[in-house]
Amino acid sequence: DYFASGYIPPVPDMPLVGYLNNPAQPTIVLANAQLQALGPQAVVVSATPAEITIPKASLIAFIPRDEAGMRSAAMQMPTRAERAIIYAGPFLLRAAFMLTGDMPLRNFFGAGGGSLSLVVVTEAEVACQTPGAKFTPLKAPILVLNKTQVQLYHPA
Length: 156
Prior knowledge:
mainly beta
């Protein structure tokens, strides 16, 4: 398991989540990338490649770090929040799911069909549970979560 950071080009005239959920684009390319191996047995050949390509199917979460990215991710986001604890890969996340109307959290993963696997959560805290991992817990006001990578969750 690995942690990657970098930059994606600005997304013109489209919410970030719509751009990330585009089925014609199965990967995300990060420029000026930095890679970190999480487990003590994992290896990174080059910690700072010029760019990396991540298949969206393997992505657990994506954190926009600039104001424009956060605004773009928050576009068209529902306003009702329900906090949950999420287990995905080696990560434990605490976040608020943004729900529509009176939809209960237990229905969230069946909503939206398969084409909307990347969804926005807010007030996120991310910790790595891999023994010996050199991962500093992260906080993010906005996080894009790949709901197909979630192994289990429960209300917080």
